[in-house]
Amino acid sequence: MNENVLFHLQIPRTVKAKYAILPGDPARVSKIASYLEDADYLVSNREYTTYFGTLCGENVLVTSTGIGGPSTAIALEELHMLGVDTIIRVGTCGGMQETVKSGDLIIATSAVRAEGTSKEYAPIELPATADFEVTSALVKAATKLDEHYHTGIIHSKDSFYGQHNPATMAVSYELENKWKAFIKCGVLASEMETAALFTVSAVRNIRAGSILHAIWNQERRKSGDNSENINTKNAVLTAIEALKIIIAEDKMIN
């Protein structure tokens, strides 16, 4: 094992940064990095692709997490080894409330821990909660850019098809009943990484926020709305603007 690089991310340990942006999809990394200054490709390994650049004079890493909690937790752990203490996830989701339309942005304030990774970090009684400063910056950024956004609780799961085809699962009774309960409780959307992100960040003392682009809404499809939007540019621009706000606020404090 090469001790000079991180085991999974394969980033040299000499690379240092305080801030990071985490998409799920490796193909989205270069697009996000294009909004940084002097951005350079670093390395790809497994689901992890990383670019390094600067924003407002501060080092920033953009690293993909792949799909789900386990790979997200590994990325967080290893980025933290490089000095990262502030993270914004830029991801996608499916809407659950009728008010969430395809193309809307969702800024997660907390996440339902319906996955397994977070349970190996903290007792289930601990809520998966976003950092207030990062979340506030995301709200300010979305407002400044005049984006249509929602704030609130989102749902994190381990099985994509358990959500989309619950009736085919042996535990369909549980999946379907909990889905209805989460909707009744006002949960806005469903995805696969944020609960792990928030829980691991709490344990490692990382400031974390999550902004999600709603691709579709399967609840709205029941009434005939089959719209689908896969363009995540607005979420990316909001995350970049939020990180500028965070960096500026950090410099005022320090």
Description:
The chain has 254 residues and is of the alpha/beta class. It is 33% helix and 29% strand. The chain has a single domain (19-253), classed as Rossmann fold. The protein has a five-stranded mixed barrel with strand order 5-9-8-6-10. Strand 2 and strand 3 (48-55) form a beta hairpin. The longest helix has 21 residues, at 233-253. It starts with 18 loop residues before the first strand and ends with a helix.
The CATH C-level class name: Alpha Beta
Tell me the span between the first and last alpha carbons.
Answer: 38 Å
| CATH topology heading | Rossmann fold
Structural class: alpha/beta
Q: What is the C-alpha radius of gyration, as a whole number of Å?
A: 18 Å
The residue ranges in which pLDDT falls below 50 over 5 or more consecutive positions are none
Largest sheet: 5 strands, mixed, barrel
Proportion in helices: 25-40%
- What is the beta-strand fraction? 25-35%
- Second rung of CATH, namely the architecture: 3-Layer(aba) Sandwich
Question: How many individual domains?
Answer: 1
